Amino acid sequence: MDWSYAGENGPDRWSDINSDYRACNLGAFQSPVDISNSIGSPELRPLIFHYHPIGLDLEFDGRVINGFPHNPLKVEFEDKTFQLYKITIHTPSEHKINSDRFDAEIQLFHRSEKHLLNIAVPIVDGAKNRQLADLVDKIPKQPHQQKVISDIDFRKIIPKKSRYYRYSGSFTKPPCKEGVVWVVYDTPLQMSGFQLDQWQLVQGKNNRPTQDLGQRIPLESR
Questions:
Q1: Do 15 and 3 meet the contact criterion of CB atoms below 8 Å apart?
Q2: pTM
Q3: Cα-to-chain-centroid distance, residue 56
Q4: Residue range 16-220 in CATH 3.10.200.10
Q5: Pairing assessment for the beta strands 219-220 and 96-97 based on DSSP bridges
């Protein structure tokens, strides 16, 4: 394991570990960020989700729990169509909103032929989440162990009538490639403390610290 979320191979050292990771510490458009001082934009439109129940392969890679859909799911955004290819779970959240960090964050990774779109949904300690129960009950507990979820509906985890923030950033782990459009929802999901604990017991704390926004100003939907 050549990089980690803590210790001598932690985020501050990622660029030193491998020359392919230079963007992690030298890039100007890095993620995650603390979303503050956003500007409302009437041009931002709701995302159109063509999601339906699917199967999912879950794998713990030693750092992050990843989910790989069995079938393509699509979303339309900014006149482009993207396909969901992976989900990840971070405990606690990677993004902050107005300096507030959340208990966890689900990230949904999409791509088109030339563009990248990541969607983040924050999660807080609260009521048991039945929609995500299988993501808890079937957590792979050993590195590279796989579990299969036969039926999960991601439509039910996208907040309805929630504003979102849009900004340009990067992937949040090495090689920290830039050129990613991020959509971060403002309204968090709830999960019980027990559910959240099951994730963190397996993967520990796996959030990259927030990065400097620099000249970037996140846009806020209305």
A1: no
A2: 0.95
A3: 16
A4: yes
A5: unpaired
